[in-house]
Amino acid sequence: MKIEVICVGKLKEKYLVQAIDEYSKRLSRYCKLNIIELADEKTPDNASVKEELIIKEREGEKILAKISDSAYVIALDLQGRMLSSEELAHFMLDCGIKGNSHLIFTIGGSLGLSDAVLKRANYKLCFSKMTFPHQLFRVMLLEQIYRGYRINNGEPYHK
Would you say which domain of life the source belongs to (predicted)? Predict the structure, then answer.
């Protein structure tokens, strides 16, 4: 299976880069992983709602430009469905069984995903109603994908 993570914003903290590298290495035995980092649009302090919408649309255009027509797109969105780790594992396995062997997870910038990206998504996934820094969230996503592969292969993994 091919898994891509399209994310807005560059990782700056060394410890997050190291965590991404570690999970990328672990995942290499299960899938082909590609992480695409897109430059975020600068949000001015006290930006208006209209300015924020324009920023999300610009970031959305960058995301959509990286998505192939045949990919199954999973948008990380607060309005999405929450799954347990076991349910996410089953979901990924089910995608492969149904012929969706190219999964793309999209992580928006600090303002979230544009309406256009959400419309293109085949599935909307929510990890929590809590807000997480989008840079840290990348690590959390890769950990859950890795956990999913371990679960699906009947391999031990801490609970």
Answer: Bacteria
Helix H or strand E encompassing 5: strand 2-8
| pLDDT value at 135 more than 90 | no
pLDDT value of residue 159: 58
Which helix (H) or strand (E) is 103 found in, with range? strand 102-107
157 falls in which pLDDT band (50, 70, 90)? confident
Which amino acid does the sequence have at 78?
A: L
Residue with tokens 């996934």: 125
Helix (H) / strand (E) containing 113: none
Using the structure block, give the residue that is written with the tokens 């960058």: 62
Cβ atoms of 107 and 136 closer than 8 Å: no
- pLDDT, average across residues 45-71: 94
As for how many domains the chain has, the answer is: 1
Tokens (6 digits) for 145: 């994908």
The torsion of the CA quartet 125, 126, 132, 133, rounded to 10 degrees, works out to 20
| Residue 159 covered by a domain | no
Cβ–Cβ < 8 Å for 149, 93: no
22: CATH: 3.40.1280.10
SS3 73: strand
Residue 144: count other Cβ atoms within 10 Å of its Cβ: 18
